[in-house]
Amino acid sequence: MEAENYLSGGYGIRLAMDARIAGRGVLSDVARVWQPSRLKGIQVSKDFGTPFLAATQVFDLRPAPRKFLSLDRTDNVSERLLTPGQILITCSGSVGRATISTVAHNNTLISHDLLRISPRDPKHWGWLYAFLRSPQGRAMMGAAQYGHIIKHLEVAHLDSLPVPLPREQILDAYQQKVSRILSLRNRSFEAAATAERKFEDCFPSYTEEPASLGFSISARKMFSRRRRLDASCYVPEVDRIISAFNADARQVDLLSGMTSRIFVPGRFKHVYGDDGMPYLDSADILEVNPDITKFVLSLSESEQKAYHIEPGWILIPCSGQVYGNLGHSVLATESHIGRVYTNHLMRVVPAKGVRGGFLQCALGHPRLGRPQIIRFAFGSSVPELSPNDIANVAIPRLGKKTEDLLADLMDEAATTRDEADELEREVAHDAELLIARFLSGHTESFE
C-alpha cells in the first residue's frame, strides 16, 4: 500500500518488463529463493563458539566476526553455513544488495537477514548474479520493499520478479565472467591470509593468552609520556606482542621511522550532487566493491587534492567503534585514484624504500597489528585515533627477503581484489545494456 513504490523507477521498469511476453520468465522459474528461519543463537566465548556474521559483514573485505554462537544450540546449521559461490541478497535495511560468498565465509554462521538465491539450472548462475547486480534489477527490488523505518524484502517479492532469459551463448559468457570474479575474490583472500600466517610464523615466542578479568600496572608507567588513564591503552596483550617482536625480529622500529607522513585531513562542508566527485566514507573502503552513492560538490579542484589517495598508502578508519571499523587497514591501489575520501580516514604514507604491502601486513594483522592500533583509541561515544599515537606503533623488521615476500602477497591480494571489483562493475554494466535492449523490443538475444 506504500505509494512511493508505485512512483519509483523500479516499478516502471517492472511494468515494461511484464509487457514483454517472450524471452522472459519470473525468478521462481529459474531459481529457488529462500531464507533460513530467524536465528536464536546462544552467544558464547570465542574459544567455544562458531563465528557469526551479520548481513552487512558479508560484504567486508576481511570479515571479522564479533559474535560466536554455540553450534549445538543453533538450529538448521546446514542452512546457515555457506559454500563459495552462493548468491546473497540483503533483505533488511538497505535491501537489494547482491554479493557472492567466497572462501572468506567458510565455516561461519551467516545471518538470516540475507536471502539465498539457488539457480535451478547451474548454467543460469552467472546471468542471475549479473541481473541482480544490474541497475534495473536493483531498482525493481527497491520498488518491492516494504516498511517505514527499516525496509524489508520477502522471498515472495523476489519470486515474482520478472527476469529476461538470454540465449545459451550469452549465458555461457556471463557464467565465465562471474566464475572469474569468484576465483579472483578467493585468491585475494587466500593471498592475504597466507601473508598473515607467514608474518605470525616469524614470532614463535608469541603466545595468545585468554583475556583476564583485570590487570594492574605501575603508576610510573601510567603517568609517563602517554599520561593516559583509560585501561585499554595498557592491555597486557600488546606487551606480549612487543616482547615477541623484540625476541624474534632483527630489530623493532616505530611506524614514524618507516613513514614520510601520517595525517588526517581537516573537515570540510559536505555538499552532494550528481555532478560532483565520487565520495567514499571510512566504512566503504573496507567493503567489497562498495556502492558509490555520494558525489561531493563543495570542494574546488585544488581543495580536492587534500582528500585524494595515492597507491601504496595505508588507509585506517580513525573514527568509529572499536568492535567495528576503527583501526582496520587497507592498502590503497590504482583503483583509489580520482575519488574524494572522508576526513575520518587516516593516511599512512610509507617512506622511500618501505613497501606499503609490508606495512599493511604488519598493521592489519588481526592478532599482532590491529591490537596495537586500537589500544590508542580515545573518547566515549565515538572513539577516535590520533596520528601522533599511531606513529608509536611497533613494526618488526624481518629482513628484505621476508618483507618483500609479505609485501608481494599483500600486493597480490589488493590487485586481485581490484580486478574482481572492476570485472563485477563491467558485468553489471553489460547486463544493464542487455536488459535495456530487451525492454526496447530487441529480443533476438533472448529465448
Q: Spans of 5+ residues with little confidence (pLDDT < 50)?
A: none
CATH A-level architecture of the largest domain? Alpha-Beta Complex
Number of helices: 15
Strands ordered across the widest β-sheet: 2-9-6-7
CATH superfamily of the largest domain: DNA methylase specificity domains
How many structurally independent domains?
2
Provide the CATH top-level class of the largest domain. Alpha Beta
Find the CATH topology of the largest domain: Adenine-n6-DNA-methyltransferase TaqI, Chain A, domain 2
Explain this structure to me?
It is a single chain. This protein has 447 residues and is α+β, with helices and mostly antiparallel strands. 36% of the residues lie in helices and 16% in strands. The chain has 15 helices and 19 strands. The strands form six sheets. The protein has a four-stranded antiparallel β-sheet. A four-stranded mixed β-sheet has the order 3-5-4-8, with no helix packed on it. A four-stranded antiparallel β-sheet has the order 12-18-15-16. A hairpin with a 7-residue loop joins strand 6 and strand 7. The protein is globular.
